[in-house]
Specification:
Blueprint (H helix, E strand, L loop, with lengths): L6 H11 L1 E4 L5 H13 L4 E6 L2 E5 L1 H6 L2 H16 L4 E8 L6 H10 L2 H11 L6 E9 L4 E5 L8 E8 L12 E4 L5 E5 L5 E6 L3 E4 L10 E9 L1
Antiparallel strand pairs: 1-10, 2-3, 2-4, 4-5, 4-6, 5-12, 6-11, 7-10, 7-12, 8-9, 8-11
Length: 227
């Protein structure tokens, strides 16, 4: 973590709004290494909702799928999205036994007592005890519709997103968009390189559609601080 961060300002913002955006969150060299890792070294599963169930396909499974089945899935995903349901994006779950050394180090770091204590101090959620982690890649045409991250069975309290695109134009989409309960859009955060998005899981949010003309994937490491 960048040692020059002003924790008091971060705490005050979160306590007021239930969310905070932190720029220059990691040491810049470390953020750059994570970006290269996500771009060069990680295999992502394509995740989506089909028949009201979470589905996950390896790159090989998706590549080799019959065209008719792939077209049917794509049609279902877009039909659901038109109703505000579902998602499609690349995901790599990061566990304690992660084979990639850099991601395993990140997992260990974010689950260290120092970082967990920082999350407790910032949020006021003193029951936080661990963090779950995933690497994500949103390609052009991918998105995550409006939802909440509150999952009681997983004890989620606090969502985090470490954004890693080296340069991102807001017109490319892929924005972290917040909403009021009636669906009215409120605040949008662009995935600026080495910025942290931290928010209470009660916030309704989405990742907006990544435009076909986006020049790079939207990479991030995200997850939840849990009880």
């Amino acid at each position: 973590m960048n040692p020059s961060l002003d924790k008091d300002v971060i705490c005050a913002t979160f306590r007021k709004e239930g969310k905070v955006r932190v720029k220059n969150f990691l040491n810049r060299d470390d953020a750059g290494k994570l970006l290269l890792c996500l771009h060069n070294d990680i295999a992502y599963n394509l995740t989506l909702v089909s028949n009201d169930k979470y589905q996950s396909y390896t790159e090989a499974q998706w590549r080799d799928m019959e065209a008719n089945k792939k077209n049917t899935l794509n049609h279902e995903v877009m039909t659901n999205a038109a109703k505000g349901i579902g998602f499609v994006y690349g995901r790599h779950a990061v566990k304690a036994d992660e084979s990639n050394e850099l991601l395993r180090s990140f997992y260990d770091w974010i689950n260290s007592e120092a970082v967990l204590a920082w999350a407790r101090d910032v949020s006021g959620f003193n029951e936080i005890k661990a963090a779950s982690v995933q690497a994500t890649r949103f390609m052009p045409g991918e998105f995550l519709t409006r939802h909440q991250d509150k999952v009681d069975s997983e004890g989620r309290k606090l969502a985090f997103v470490v954004n890693l695109p080296p340069s991102w134009h807001p017109d490319w989409g892929g924005l972290l968009q917040f909403y009021q309960t009636d669906g009215t859009p409120t605040e949008s955060w662009s995935p600026e390189f080495n910025s942290l998005s931290l928010f209470d899981v009660k916030h309704i949010h989405s990742v907006t559609y990544v435009a076909p003309f986006a020049l790079q994937p939207r990479y991030a490491i995200s997850g939840w601080f849990t009880t």
